[in-house]
Amino acid sequence: QVQLVQSGAEVKKPGASVKVSCKASGYTFTTFGVSWVRQAPGQGLEWMGWIRTHNANINIKKKFQGRVSLTTDTSTTTAYMELRSLTSDDTAVYFCARWDLGYNWFDPWGQGTLLIVSS
Amino acid sequence: DIQMTQSPSSLSSSVRDRVTITCQASQDISNSLNWYQQKVGRAPKLLIYDASNLEAGVPSRFSGSGSGADFNLTISSLQPEDIATYYCQQYDNLPITFGQGTRLEIK
Asked: What digits encode the pLDDT tens for the residues B5-28?
């Protein structure tokens, strides 16, 4: 079945970086994109950006530009999201999701990766 | 950025009730709207895409309607397993934006 499996929880200090992985299986990786969405504790969903896996073209939400890198490794069908210069405001669950390039829906989603930023 | 406003923010209804959640966009987004269900501690799940298309495997009691700036998600007969938070998402313009969520509870 179609599945996205993310890397485990992380605890980082302010100013550090984190790299979250998202391993896709059950479909042809390059026929869909990968989107990244985060959810702060008790809050709603915030789109961060997406990457077209067939050509690595990316769009990143303005507030994250310069701090987020989105990459993929098609040989291992894995997507990565790196977030730099962490602050406590980045404490959240980070989700990857398969992105349909036509209707722009996200499905399925990974299980989420909890990031805690604390000194 | 396009603002998505859902109402109500929370809702308590009885089993077998008909439930409607609304989502209003800050501008015309045509049919560029998806709906998701998120249960506690889980990842969101796609329910409806392109405003009114039911995702495969989603129970037929869920339906979506609307176009332009006003949209509805309706559950025709509420079931206990429908306890969740529901989000709308627009994709007419970047950045992608979500509504703030509607928390649905059973009375």
From this structure: 999 999 999 999 999 999 999 999
